[in-house]
Each structure stands twice: as structure tokens, then as C-alpha cells.
Amino acid sequence: MDTIMNFWGKIDIWQVLSSFIFLIAIIDPFGNIPVTISMEKRGIKISAWRVCLASFVILMAFLFAGEWILKLFGVQIEYFAIAGGFVILLMALEMILDITIFQNDKLEEQVEGAGSIVPLAFPMYAGPGAFTALLAITAEYSIASLCVSLTCCIIVLYLVLIGTNWLTKYLGPTALYIIRKFFGIIVLAIACKLMFGNMAAIF
Predict the structure, then answer these.
(1) CB atoms within 10 A of CB 180
(2) Is 133 exposed, middle or buried (0-12, 13-18, 19+ CB in 10 A)?
(3) pLDDT digit string (tens) for 172-198?
(4) Which residues contact 154 (CB under 8 A, 6 or more apart)?
(5) CA–CA gap between residue 181 and residue 77 (Å, rounded)
(6) How far is CA 41 from the centre of its chain?
(7) What pTM, to 2 d.p., does this model score?
(8) Angle between helices 48-72 and 128-137 (to 10 degrees)
């Protein structure tokens, strides 16, 4: 009981807010709305709660097992944060400049899955970008705070999935485009913070 209380006692509201903004930008539920609409037009039934549950389980498992994986390969979290910051920087450039750096176009054709779990839950929402982001920011944020922010991200993802048609109709492509650019700038700033902050810690 004391262990549980100590764990949740490490929650910091500012860490929750900042990591939430960062993770929601990486997961990018708004930017992926066109993909969701395209799948529905092809006759694929998307279950919002199944997608969110699968994404949540995958990301939580990686959050708790990721550090163990790093120890297995003898990599310090600070070095991974620098490498992860560089990958996240490239993702931010994709969002800001409308360029394609990571080629994922044929991933859906290469992976067989049930319904909308693949490719929505994995690798779109709970994919390499989110894995890298989670492991990178564990160098600066407590696991308890990340659990809360990740839960909030999944709630937002659920709301976006069930309201995709409404968002597309009332926000329009221009508003969604602006939101994606805004999050791209935030991701770029956090990527720089991860790289340079951890470089300073190492040297």
C-alpha cells in the first residue's frame, strides 16, 4: 500500500500538462483524421474503444518495460533521450514542412490485423514515434505523471475518433491543418530541449 501511495505521490501537475501536450502532438489524433475517414470509406468499421484500449495497453507496456530494455542493451536513458530527440525533431519537420521522411505508406499492406487495430492502434497511434517519445521523456518526467498524461491522451483520442465526422464538418481542413502546424512547432521545441538538455547533463 505504501509503495502505491509513494508511486502516485510523485505526480506533478506541470509534468502531466507538459508531457500531455507533447504526447498528444506525437500521437496526433487530429492530423490522422483523414486516414480514419479513408478507412471508413473503404468499408472498414472502426471501433473507437478497441483502438484506444489497444493503444493504451501497448503504450503502457512500453512505458514500464522500455527502461528495462535499455538496461538490457547497456544504454543510458540520457543517450536514448538525445537519439530520441533527433528522431522526434525529424517528425516535427514532417508536420511543419509537409514533407515525408518516414516511409509508412505500404505498412498497412504488409501487416495483417483484425479490423481497425492494425494499422490504427499500431503502428499509427502506438507506434515508433510514441515509443521514442515515452522513453525519451522518462529522463525528465516521473512514471506516475506519464501514466496520467498518457491516460488523458487516450481519452482525447477516443473523443476524436467518435467525433471524426463532426470535427471534419465543423472545423474543416484549414483548422485541422493549422492545429497540425501548431503541434509541430511544440514538438520541435521539445525535441531541441531533449537533445540539448541531456547533452548538458552528460557533459
Answers:
(1) 19
(2) buried
(3) 878 878 888 888 888 888 788 878 888
(4) 52, 55, 56, 59
(5) 29
(6) 25
(7) 0.74
(8) 50
